[in-house]
Design goal:
This protein is α+β, with helices and mostly antiparallel strands and about 100 residues long. The protein has a single domain, classed as q64v53_bacfr protein fold (Single Sheet). About 30% of the residues lie in helices and about 35% in strands. The chain has three helices and five strands. The chain has a five-stranded antiparallel sheet with strand order 4-3-2-1-5.
């Protein structure tokens, strides 16, 4: 069962970072769920080196539950690889990441 409710999912935007100066590594990964024009849900994943435009991929789901499961799967996968949630100063990012993603 998904731990995100419908209100949270409407504005869900998670920013992850993995920084290791010894390896010259500075990466970011963004996960967000957004509604489409046709009533479906889109899981949008963006990644790249910090400071670059990076890449983006979209996956479409018929319902909120399957989009939430896919988001949680990607989030767990990235955490296992060493990514940490970035606490942002903006109200949009920090309210979700602080409340739901404490480790």
């Amino acid at each position: 069962m998904s731990r995100f409710n419908d209100h949270d999912r409407a504005s869900l935007n998670i920013l992850l970072e993995r920084i290791d100066p010894a390896c010259n590594m500075a990466r970011y990964y963004v996960l967000s769920i957004e509604p489409t024009l046709f009533g479906d849900q889109a899981l949008i994943r963006g990644w790249g080196r910090i400071g670059s435009k990076g890449r983006q991929r979209r996956e479409f789901f018929a319902d909120d539950a399957s989009a939430g499961v896919a988001l949680e799967t990607w989030l767990a996968r990235k955490r296992r690889r060493g990514y940490c949630t970035r606490i942002s100063a903006s109200r949009h990012d920090s309210s979700v990441s602080v409340r739901h993603l404490r480790t």
